[in-house]
Amino acid sequence: MKRSNSRPQEAANLTEGEITALYLRLSRDDDLSGESNSIANQRAQLTEYAKKNGFKNIVAFVDDGISGATIDRENFQKMLELIELDKVKTVIVKDMSRFGRNYLEVGNLTEIVFPQHNVRLIAVNDGVDTADGIDDFTPFRNVINELYLKDLSRKLRSSQRIKSKQGYAIGLLPLGYIHGADDPKRWAVDEEGAELVRRIYAMRLEGTSVNNIAAILRREKVLTPAAYAKEKGYRKLTKTTRGDIFWDKSTVTLILTNRAYLGDVINFRTFSRSYKLKQRLDNPKEKWEIHEGVHDPVIDRDVWGAGTKNFRGYQVPQAETHREKYVRRLPVLFRLRRPSELQVHARQSGQPLFFLP
């Protein structure tokens, strides 16, 4: 995924009065649509349109590599914040699908939020200009845009199933692997990354705790797997949220428990309830698809087994019981020890007394 950004020289226009916002978006799926949807072409088309029609104070907001299924996009949100502050006069997009593909969220913005702040919306290729009113077809166009995304998601899931049945991994490359030169769908060992993985296993076998392993890697300023993949160009990523060298217990644990280092492929360990949601949920193990010995191992099975034996790594938090939730929400008076303290606190605070069985 590419970094979302707006050009610094354009951002300087933010203090010069009401803004003409050009919104540009490209998702990874849109890459398949050809050059016409590229950020460069969107920018050229919208800039030419804005200047030709006399719009001033032009600022571009760019979300590159971000799906239109949600409005939770970095620079889209920055644009909305300025709209809430009544600093945006006009928003121009190439077409309504660039604006978004969730018809409920798009409808709320175009029919409620934008009119409240007197913002004009123009979708150049769709012939939409709210200065002339919203035509009856625009809501249907928004539905069609979402149906396109839904169909794309269905096709992607189907493609992933077929790919998995053939023994290909469908997840992200773990540290220590790259795409194979002969068959990019297969993983090949990346020796530089693999050496770090072997070192982590060696430290664990020597008795080093997971927290201490993370501390050692932080102290030595070793790049995290995500930062390493970004630096090597193995993944298209946004900025790392906690820094490029922020190793923690969870990062080390994922490496120590990842069966991919045995040469195995394990697909569908997580799933999403909807194509609109980013959240990934853990799949029950019976729904995993496992293919053993697909690619070259980084760690021997005996070493991997010894490294994970009696492993006291990340424990998945268990759901609170009803009683635990109840106790956690009780007022402070339950932390008082003597009944007399309870009575005094109750009189002073006006809170009723409760007693646990």
Descriptive notes:
It is built from 13 helices and eleven strands. By secondary structure, it is of the alpha/beta class. It has two domains: 142 residues, Rossmann fold, CATH 3.40.50.1390; 139 residues, Hect, E3 ligase catalytic domain fold (Alpha-Beta Complex). A five-stranded mixed β-sheet has the order 2-1-3-4-5, sandwiched between helices. Strands 6-7 form a two-stranded antiparallel sheet. Strand 1, helix 2 and strand 2 form a beta-alpha-beta unit. Helix 5 packs antiparallel against helix 6, helix 7 packs across helix 11 and helix 8 packs across helix 10. It starts with 7 loop residues before the first helix and ends in an 8-residue tail after the last helix.
